[in-house]
Specification:
Blueprint (H helix, E strand, L loop, with lengths): L8 E5 L4 H17 L2 E8 L5 H16 L2 E6 L9 H17 L6 E3 L4 H13 L4 H4 L5 E4 L2 E4 L7 H10 L16 H12 L6 H29 E4 L2 E4 L1 H5 L3 H16 L7 H12 L4 E3 L2 E5 L4 E5 L1 H4 L4 E2 L8 E4 L6 E5 L1 H5 L12 H5 L2 E5 L2 E4 L10 E4 L3 H6 L5
Parallel strand pairs: 1-2, 1-4, 2-3, 4-6
Antiparallel strand pairs: 5-6, 7-8, 8-11, 9-10, 10-11, 12-14, 13-17, 14-15, 15-16
């Protein structure tokens, strides 16, 4: 926050709970002092009827402080997957989309010391390693936004005491007592562990202590990648000799990052599955995991997209496909992008000249008109179409560091 000065704009996420209410008031005092424009945002996930009135209460509070306030609504949940995780992802996506056109590149979040401790416990239960247990960072960058947690080192009760002293009310979210949610379970476990000296402060301190270890491992992994990784048509390729000579932890990190990068997944694969893959690769065996196929040869270890994971993925030709590919050419209204597949590859007589493995071409982007193949640029059937990979080696290497 010290780098933000007069004329800058900063956002703050406000749900109406004690943590975010305290953050809103504290940040408004700071913004007035340094000449920064503060804007508030509330996300209504559409999961509770009371959320509408709660958002109105936040709007009223913001109006009293002279802070611009916007309510964003999440309305596209498909009812699948983990509800809390889906809501969280939607919340961050909506806030990033809200901030960008307003010139807001930093958004403050109201996570506290207790949130850090609860996160530690939940990740411990999932068997996380150093990365997961190092917890939430006070500042990180994602989707073009700097996400800031100014009160991460403060206990929730301190913030509530501040609100009480200034006669500022807040909203109690009933879902904070719903034991169907893992975070609520972790909160209750903290009370049980406290007599052993394992309280929120201790767990948060442990998480913070692990962050330098995580950063050191990331630097070592990045250095290794510079020496033995190449990227070819959105496939990540390892030099098998160089990979085999790495420390097992660095091997694991490179594999995990490659799987996430190729599949554009938010989360890494499960530790047990990753360990099995690592053993298979070192034994010279090929495998599939996390929407990727891993081909191990004496000349290379290639991680690319698995056709089965994307065979039903389609989009209009003007849209980015599988987050990696942008296609351009003589468009028509009924053209769409789909994976080439085995049937499509049979229609590409010069595909061997592409210098890409057959299995990579199966998952490559192609232009279709219903069941008619129009173009497969990576398989040497261009027909005036071009396929451009959005990311390359520099992006792969830079994204090895947490931001």
């Amino acid at each position: 926050m010290g780098a933000l000065r007069g004329g800058a704009r900063i956002g703050v996420a406000v749900s109406g709970g004690s943590d975010s209410c305290a953050l809103l008031h504290l940040m408004q005092l700071w913004a007035q002092k340094v000449g920064v424009t503060l804007s508030a945002v509330t996300v209504d996930h559409g999961l509770r009827k009371a959320a509408v009135e709660e958002a109105k209460t936040v709007a009223k509070t913001c109006a009293g402080l002279g802070v611009e306030h916007t309510v964003l609504k999440w309305a596209d949940w498909d009812g699948k997957g983990n509800l809390q995780d889906q809501a969280r992802q939607a919340r961050y996506r909506l806030m990033a989309q809200w901030g960008a056109p307003r010139g807001i590149s930093t958004i403050a979040l109201g996570h506290t010391l207790e949130d850090q401790a609860e996160t530690f416990l939940m990740r411990l239960a999932r068997g996380s390693g150093v990365d997961g247990l190092s917890g939430m960072a006070q500042l990180y960058t994602s989707a073009g936004i700097d996400w800031l947690r100014p009160v991460l080192l403060l206990e929730r009760q301190h913030l509530r005491d501040y609100l009480s002293r200034h006669q500022i009310g807040w909203i109690e979210d009933p879902s904070n007592q719903d034991e169907r949610f893992d975070r609520v379970k972790a909160r209750k476990i903290l009370k049980v562990l406290a007599p052993l000296g394992i309280d929120a402060a201790r767990l948060a301190s442990t998480a913070s202590a692990l962050q330098p270890a995580r950063q050191a491992l990331e630097v070592q992994t990045q250095a290794a990648a510079r020496q033995m990784v190449t990227v070819q048509a959105a496939d990540v390729v390892f030099d098998p000799v160089g990979f085999g000579g790495l420390h097992p932890e660095i091997q694991s990190r490179l594999l995990s990052h490659a799987l996430r990068w190729v599949s554009s997944s938010r989360y890494p694969p499960r530790r047990a599955a990753l360990q099995d893959l690592q053993a298979a690769v070192l034994a010279g065996k090929s495998s599939t995991l996390h929407g990727c196929r891993i081909i191990t040869k004496t000349s290379e270890i290639r991680i690319g997209r698995e056709y089965q994971a994307i065979k039903d993925m389609s989009c209009a030709t003007g849209v980015i496909w599988d987050r990696h590919w942008q296609l351009s050419g003589p468009d028509a209204n009924d053209f769409e992008i789909r994976a080439l597949g085995a049937a499509g590859l049979l229609l590409c007589p010069d595909w061997r000249a592409a210098e890409l493995p057959r299995i990579s071409l199966l998952a490559s982007p192609a232009v279709w008109q219903n069941q008619t193949l129009i173009a497969a640029p990576l398989a040497r059937l261009g027909n005036e179409w071009q396929a451009t990979a959005r990311f390359g080696l520099d992006h792969f290497i830079s994204s090895l560091l947490s931001h």
